[in-house]
Design goal:
This protein has seven helices and eight strands; from the N terminus they run E-E-E-H-E-H-H-E-H-H-E-E-E-H-H. With 214 residues, the protein is α/β, with parallel strands linked by helices. InterPro entries: Ketohexokinase-related, PfkB_dom, Ribokinase-like.
Length: 214
């Protein structure tokens, strides 16, 4: 593979409060909570976590509130620092804008695809391909994922479900990060898609993310 690129994740970080129960509660009933954990969440935050665990050089850009979850970001070796935005800074940033090298991939969620009337990942990508000049990727839960590249060729990967389904929170972010990780290392679209499904499936077999590389 080629030299590994750096990845910047821009977006949301939040606090997920997860309650574990014996079974899915029925409406208007009380259920005893078996356990509870607080976990840092948010799409960009989760993706940056996965990238760091996989070994990719990455950084997170977003708003952080003071608290213990900030120190967990340091533990994962994710780069964070205070950034001042002012007119002078923007002048320097705009001067170097032409030097940026961008690789454009668009992840289409299942919910968005269904909203636009598509009933499968393949049909969504074929329908949207002419409107978006980019690599399109769409995961479809237990049916795996599809992608279409600049050549218009559709590629597919089956899902890799765990032996026991434990925790699906953040599985989509795990898939996205794993695909980006592979592409940033020079992998093909097919390799990225398969690796993304494998890591996302593995993540669903345990709580959190720390066991992904074990």
């Amino acid at each position: 593979m080629e030299r590994q690129g750096k990845v910047l994740c821009i977006g949301l970080v939040c606090l997920d409060i997860i309650n574990v129960v014996d079974k899915y509660p029925e409406e208007d009933t009380d259920s005893r909570c078996v356990s509870q954990r607080w976990q840092r969440g948010g799409n960009a935050s989760n993706s940056c976590t996965i990238l760091s665990i996989l070994g990719a050089p990455c950084a997170f850009m977003g708003s952080l509130a003071p608290g213990p979850l900030v120190f967990e970001i340091y533990r994962l070796a994710i780069v964070i620092c205070t950034v001042l935005v002012n007119a002078v800074m923007l002048q320097h940033a705009n001067a170097n804008f032409h030097q940026l090298r961008l690789s454009l991939q668009v992840f289409v969620s299942k919910d968005v695809a269904v909203h636009f009337g598509y009933q499968s990942a393949a049909s969504a990508l074929k329908g949207l391909y002419s409107r978006v000049k980019a690599v399109l990727i769409c995961a479809w839960a237990e049916k795996g994922a599809d992608a279409i590249g600049p050549d218009g060729v559709l590629v597919h990967s089956d899902a890799f479900p765990p032996e026991k389904l434990v925790d699906t929170l953040g599985a989509g972010d795990t898939f996205n990060a794993s695909v980006i990780y592979t592409l940033s290392r020079g992998g093909t679209l097919q390799e990225a898609l398969t690796f993304g499904c494998q890591i996302a499936g593995k993540k669903c077999g345990f709580h959190g993310y720390d066991g992904i590389v074990q």
